[in-house]
Amino acid sequence: MTINHRFNTTAIHAEQCPDEKSGAVSQSIIPAVAYCFDNAESAVDVVSGKKEGRYYGRYGNPTTRTLENKVAVLEGAEDALGVSSGMAAISIALMASLRTGDHVVVTKDVYGGTHKFLSNIATRYGIEYDFVDCTDYLNIENAIKENTKAVYIETPSNPTLTLIDIAEVAVITKRHDLKLIVDNTFMTPYLQRPIDLGADIVVHSATKYLNGHGDVIAGIICGSKADIDYMRKDVMGDLGQNLNAWESFLVLRGIKTLGIRMEQHCRNAQEVAEYLEQHPMVERVFYPGLPSHPQHSLAKKQMKNMGGIVAFEVKGDVQTGKDFISALKVAMISFSLGDPETLVQHPASMTHSSIPESQLHEFGLSTGLIRLSVGLEDAEDIIEDLNQALLCTVAVPMKN
Ligand SMILES: Cc1ncc(COP(=O)(O)O)c(C=O)c1O
Q1: 302 and 192 Cβ atoms separated by less than 8 Å
Q2: Which reaction does this enzyme catalyse, per its entry (predicted)?
Q3: Exposed end of the chain (fewer CB within 10 Å): N or C?
Q4: Catalytic-role residue among 109, 111, 193, 371
């Protein structure tokens, strides 16, 4: 264990050591499904959970175990579970925390997939939910009912980067004996550690910054040993949502550079946000690192740095937003985030296109809103790209 080391040392060394037989420094990829035992007794001990070990690939894998142990250390959790996607992490965490007849309070600007899971699937199994504005803690208190078992939040939110004070929400969940689940995908443990702030369960789309190279779909859940054991044996394993050895290896490799990547994402995003804020063709910029962000002081208290996502409104209608992203040459139009490449999307015509234009404001969105996942390229090149796209698509405002 290297728990006393700083973040980058821990990210590289924690829970990993050279392969005993070959001396190989890099993590071995063990794709085995079956594991053998010296005798029946030890097989029984592992299956019953009395002894740590693997017995069947759907319930755990040695390469994935290394990843789980490493992320648990980085998040300050007792244990972690690697699963097949961020949505698997979210659905497992919710299914493990709720039964038929239970209720969950969910922040209103939650990731679309989480919204869809609750409204399409969870509801069919009698799980109740309320989407509330969790930036006002009174709303959470007011939404808690007798059958409430959990509060689910995401901070900063997607795409308008609204923050929720995790420690404040944890005071409420502890008072009511509820599980607090936090989606930490945007921040990673390098920038924010929800368990230190009182969260019970942390979920990640490891597809994003944790892996960081746009070539893996994966999820991680962190929490107490008891919660993770239950999720592994009674939810993930039984539903077959396990993560495989190859993808675990790739995420482990990505995590080695997580700290330096996040530093560069944050540095670039800050420069991009400052550039956009002074641009006459930009109506508004959403970035927690700008003093103009309404929760800038909470961001400084809760996060180590401000993250790699910048949202902004270009002046114009839906077509202007589409024209603007089409004119970009370095930034790529894409639905993902957290990759080395700068990725851009236009919620009104892409992720939120099902919402009528007249109702966009109800979701805190506008026709010209653009979400930029600022990549690892040189900031000057990203800014020059934004500049040329703004010049060729957005009308210059007339001076009075
Ligand atoms: C904040 C957040 N959580 C969860 C997910 C789901 O992750 P995955 O695509 O790995 O299932 C996403 C995907 O974009 C996300 O942005």
Answers
A1: yes
A2: L-methionine + H2O = methanethiol + 2-oxobutanoate + NH4(+); L-homocysteine + H2O = 2-oxobutanoate + hydrogen sulfide + NH4(+) + H(+)
A3: C
A4: 111
